[in-house]
């Protein structure tokens, strides 16, 4: 029995250098590891091509391409469909969906809400859902904004335009985003 | 059990002394052995963790480290990240594939860096870097059939960058034959 134990003990490896290496590698990889989940949004730019040959007759506006456009300004969101502004009945000269009093999440501090005038994403989603119901085959949306509008608002608009929650399901609205040049 | 106890009771005192000595000896021996750690199981655990971390590290197609100058916006998007040329726009600089191309000041590109001055959309150094990046992808594609150049690039942009700079970057990328964009976002659950 003692003989056997001696024979077993003989090939004892010196694991200290290997342990040192592993103990250094683990914290290194842990810090390098992605702790936040990232995803992407597909966006296209307008394609330059020949103008449409088959222009629809003027008296049938419903045959015109939808060309749904959402424009962001400091005052709110303006929605265009078939080259026409969707008017706000309360304020025909103002944006389609004016900013509302609310609060938005701080970019620097997680969870902190800052009160102020914010875009009404819910109303936009409702309006886009109505447009989608009338044009079920359409999937494209053009997004444009004033020069000073911050990037994260554009992302929020894309989120509102992508899909809408209806009960347990998510209804796809306009997932194909095309970015257009800014409003001067 | 009671039989054993009986047997024990009849044993002479000297036997018990012997046993005590023996036990003491065993204890000393055990203590000497205890100093030697068996690290096999610990090594097993650490090796598994190491392999797991190495695997998750290597499959990550885009390593982005948010900083004070780069706050990635939150979104409910679900599309996966794809390996492609990355344009990173922070509050301080524009990078192509993690190489600094030019500096940004007050969320603007200097007029002298643009074709057409202040009102121009074409950022000259960025276009040069992107043409080179596209050329590199094409060279790889010519020898590796699994890679192909499809004009896709990923835009990693700080949340506070104005729309103007975004359009300048996308326009410049478009001029370098990048027509499909993927905007990188941090995933949050949609309310």
Please give a quick description of this structure.
Chain A has 184 residues and is of the alpha/beta class. Helix content of chain A is 28%, strand content 28%. In chain A, a hairpin with a 2-residue loop joins strand 3 (76-81) and strand 4 (84-85).
3D architecture notes:
The complex is a heterodimer of chains A (184) and B (191). With 184 residues, chain A is of the alpha/beta class. Chain A has helices at 2-9, 16-32, 121-134, 151-162; strands at residues 38-44, 69-72, 76-81, 84-85, 97-98, 100-105, 113-118, 140-145, 163-166, 169-172, 176-179. In chain A, the strands form three sheets. In chain A, strands 1, 2, 3, 4, 5, 8 and 11 form a seven-stranded mixed β-sheet that branches. In chain A, a hairpin with a 3-residue loop joins strand 2 and strand 3. In chain A, helix 3 (121-134) crosses helix 4. Chain A is elongated. Residues 49-53 of chain A have low confidence and may be disordered. By secondary structure, chain B is an alpha/beta fold. Chain B has helices at 2-10, 13-34, 40-58, 124-143, 163-175, and strands at 74-75, 85-89, 93-96, 99-103, 114-115, 122-123, 152-157, 180-187. Chain B has a six-stranded mixed β-sheet with strand order 1-8-7-2-3-4, covered by helices on one side. In chain B, helix 4 crosses helix 5 (163-175). The radius of gyration of chain B is 33 Å and the shape is elongated. The termini of chain B are far apart. Chains A and B meet through helix 2, strand 1 and helix 4 of A and helix 3, strand 1, helix 5 and strand 8 of B.
